[in-house]
Amino acid sequence: MSGLSNKKILLGVTGGIACYKSAVLLRALQTAGAEVRVVMTPAARAFVTPLTFQALSGHAVYTELLDPAQEAAMDHISLARWADLVLIAPATADFIARAATGQADDLLSTLCLATEVQIALAPAMNRQMWLNPVTQENLQRLMIRGYLCWGPDDGAQACGETGPGRMLEPEVLCQMAESHFSPGILEGVRVLMTAGATREAIDPVRFVGNRSSGKMGYALAQSMRDLGAEVTLVSGPTSLAIPSNITTIHVETALEMYSSVMEHVEDCDIFIAVAAVADYRPIQIATDKIKKNKEKQTLELVRNPDILAEVAATESPPFTVGFAAETEKVEQHADEKRRRKQLDIIAANKVGTDEGGFESDRNALLLLWQDGREELPMMTKSVLAHRLAERIAAQYRARI
Ligand code: PMT
Question: Of 323, 378, 384, which is best to mutate to test ligand 1, by the most ligand atoms within 8 angstroms of its C-beta?
Answer without folding.
Answer: 323
